[in-house]
Design a protein that fits this description.
The protein contains 15 helices and 14 strands. By secondary structure, it is α/β, with parallel strands linked by helices. The chain has a single domain (about 10-470), classed as Alpha-Beta Barrel (TIM Barrel), CATH 3.20.20. The strands form four sheets. An eight-stranded parallel β-barrel has the order 1-2-3-4-5-7-11-12, surrounded by five helices.
């Protein structure tokens, strides 16, 4: 097998999100967030898209897996010790906004929440693991959703600024790597989790979505500026969901359509946060969809001053497009749309598996921006079986990860500057898309099931030992 030369200091590790692992949803004076009202199961998205969704908890009607999740809130020492045993150099996690400001608009922060993350960061640092912290990861305070309409309100920028200033000052000696908004561009598909509101009618989608984005871009720029001022030796990046868009064939109409889809989904948010200005291609889109942004004096200057240091991104799949699609063409498993690619296999959940697409992604991003890149999410959601002797032989996961790490190695040889790799769901947790426990990504199995049963016992899968060897050899042994 070909050996790859990963750079010295490469940040090998794993990635999680507070709302998917912590649990303790009503402990430590934490307030409710969007994730706390999301029911579990494959109907999750249909419920969210229902205009009658009321953002309330209905325990008699639904099960809410995020409430307990895998109980990282109480078991973080045990889990971090397992990460250290694998040799993690970095652990990507997020701070739950409502642990710090329970409603989101308070003036004073919640000390219990601040103290919890002090303990987590201290534990990581004790094991020599760099925290890579996402500031906002699909867990907007529910009060800001109900009272202000989410990011549609410019007032939320002020609340976010207060939150960010608080955590930067508190953790400036404990956290070096930061990211602003998780998969910020995903709100083009599902605004509820990233922007804090649902679309009632398709024709009403455009104006509120892009105005809310403008507010998030301002918030991101403010965060970048504050991070550089408060933590001078820090690095702060954006975080996008990147899926390269392929044309179905060489028909120029389909090639142009694929280009336009890629511009909007992959580059719109990234251009603003990396280059500090709106891209030229968006002007026509705004005109055709009757979008007129409310931009105040100083906004564009702030965006220019608050550009990120690196680009963090998730990569799970590519996307294939043609202009005239039919229902028969659709690839239902790919949550970001597109049509079925006949050259690709799919996961248990129908996600198309395309390791070469990761190399394509890395080259596209580096060619466009010449900024350091960081793969902060990538992994395989699959059904895992515990054998009678307690082992979990997840060779399918090892093969998936190996092929994607090889793609990264090839991209580095292509000249791409790559900082690190934190594979998604290093420990089993609640799936964001479906709220299931059975969709497992981890190197560590957690005994927790879709009906809420389970002991929460942790078990090492075969991939645990494989990834330990990958890290210890800096990617030489795959």
């Amino acid at each position: 097998m070909k050996k790859y030369d990963f750079p010295e200091g490469f940040l090998w590790g794993g990635a999680t999100a507070a709302n998917q692992i912590e649990g303790g949803f009503n402990e430590g004076n934490k307030g409710l967030n969007i994730a706390d009202v999301l029911p579990g199961g494959k109907e999750r998205y249909k419920i969210l898209l229902n205009p009658g969704f009321d953002f309330e908890i209905h325990p008699d009607q639904y099960y809410y897996p995020n409430h307990e999740a895998i109980d990282f809130y109480h078991r973080y020492k045990e889990d971090i010790a397992l990460f250290a045993e694998m040799g993690f150099k970095a652990f990507r996690m997020s701070i739950a906004w409502t642990r710090i400001f329970p409603n989101g608009d308070e003036v004073e922060a919640n000390e219990e929440g601040l103290a919890f993350y002090d303990c987590v960061f201290d534990e990581l640092n004790k094991h020599g693991i760099e925290p890579v912290v996402t500031i906002s990861h699909y867990e907007m305070p529910l009060h800001l959703v109900k009272e202000y309409g989410g990011w549609r309100s410019r007032k939320v920028v002020t609340f976010f600024e207060r939150y960010v200033k608080t955590i930067f000052n508190r953790y400036k000696n404990k956290v070096k790597y930061w990211m602003t908004f998780n998969e910020i561009n995903s709100s083009l598909v599902m605004p509820i989790q990233g922007l804090g509101f649902s679309i009632q009618k398709e024709q009403d989608r455009y104006q509120p979505t892009f105005q809310a984005y403008h507010h998030q871009f301002l918030a991101s720029a403010l965060a970048v500026k504050m991070c550089h001022e408060i933590i001078p030796n820090s690095k702060i990046g954006c975080m996008i969901l990147f899926a390269p868009v392929y044309s179905f064939d060489s028909n120029p109409e389909n090639v142009m359509y694929a280009l336009q889809e890629e511009q909007l989904f992959n580059y719109y948010c990234t251009d603003v946060q990396v280059r500090g200005e709106y891209p030229a291609f968006i002007n026509r889109y705004f005109k055709e969809h009757h979008i007129e942004l409310e931009i105040q004096e100083g906004d564009l200057e702030l965006m220019k001053e608050g550009t990120v240091d690196y680009i963090g991104f998730s990569y799970y799949m590519s996307r294939t497009e043609k202009k005239a699609k039919t229902d028969e063409d659709s690839s239902e498993g790919n949550i970001i749309g597109g049509i079925r690619n006949p050259f690709l296999k799919t996961s248990d959940w129908g996600w198309e598996i395309d390791p070469v697409g990761l190399r394509i992604t890395l080259n596209k991003l580096y060619d466009r921006y010449q900024k350091p890149l960081f793969v902060v999410e990538n992994g395989l959601g699959a059904y895992d079986k515990v054998e009678e002797d307690g082992t979990i032989n997840d060779d399918y996961r090892i093969n998936y990860l190996r092929e994607h790490i090889q793609a990264m190695g090839e991209a580095i040889e292509d000249g791409v500057e790559l900082m690190g790799y934190t594979s998604w769901g290093c420990i089993d947790m609640v799936s964001m898309s479906t709220g299931e426990f059975s969709k497992r990504y981890g190197y560590i199995y957690v005994d927790k099931h879709d009906d809420g049963s389970g002991t929460l016992e942790r078990k090492k899968k075969k991939s645990f030992f494989w990834y330990r060897d990958v890290i210890s050899t800096n990617g030489e042994k795959l």
